[in-house]
TrEMBL record:
The chain crosses the membrane at residues 6-29, 112-138, 150-171. Belongs to the exbB/tolQ family. This is Biopolymer transport protein ExbB. Keywords: Cell membrane, Membrane, Protein transport, Transmembrane, Transmembrane helix, Transport. It comes from Halomonas ventosae. One of its GO terms (cellular component) is plasma membrane. It comes from the Bacteria. Its main location: membrane. It is found in: Cell membrane; Membrane. GO terms for biological process: protein import. Residues 210-230 have a biased composition (Basic and acidic residues). The keyword NAD does not apply. Residues 210-237 are annotated as: Disordered. It is a multi-pass membrane protein.
Amino acid sequence: MDMMDALIAGGWLMVPLLGCSLAATVIIIERLWTLRARRIAPYGLGQEVCRLVARGQVNLYWLEGHSPLGGVLAAGLRNARLGHEQVRARLQEAATAVIHDMERFLSPLGTIAAITPLIGLLGTVVGMIEVFAVIVTGDGASRTADLAGGISRALVTTAAGLTVAIPSLMFHRYFQRRVEDITVRMEEQAGQVVEYLAHYPGELVLAERHADESRPGARGDEQLEADGRIAPRVKQP
């Protein structure tokens, strides 16, 4: 039985199952691309921000455009003069927004994983109702095709529902774990910056130039290595 035969055998309930399958596939591909730790919270950014603070070369526009973690750190640095409690509060608020963005589409994916087995079960019930309806008429022997159609619908829809639900549930759990891991990484690097600011003896100097005028590639300060870590760039004489 090929794909088209299965769709026909499953009846109209295969339509929502097919829609759930396409939606789950799109969500999984999009989340795999979006939830990359190097893009959201690159290693070494917190330490690099501390070094830039010490040199008075922190540019908030560049930091905000660097990564979501950079946006979180920039939100805290903007309120550094208001005290450490305000810094922590702004970091928490900005991190909450980033976490909310990382969890986008995970709820629909979990819903798909939950309802597709139920749709398959509904197909099983509908198929068995058709089978028993044929048997009750008393001419089941002469209507073998109708009996086979009801049984086929019951089995195909159940199999299709489980086929969609199992990978959807696996990826849903996987993405939840990845969000937790990235959140922990963000907390660690934000904690480094807060700890450094708590012991910073001088006056905090923040550059407010536009990112196009002051990003590391334009002014020759630092650049992001290919592996997602921050490394100092040698200045030209």
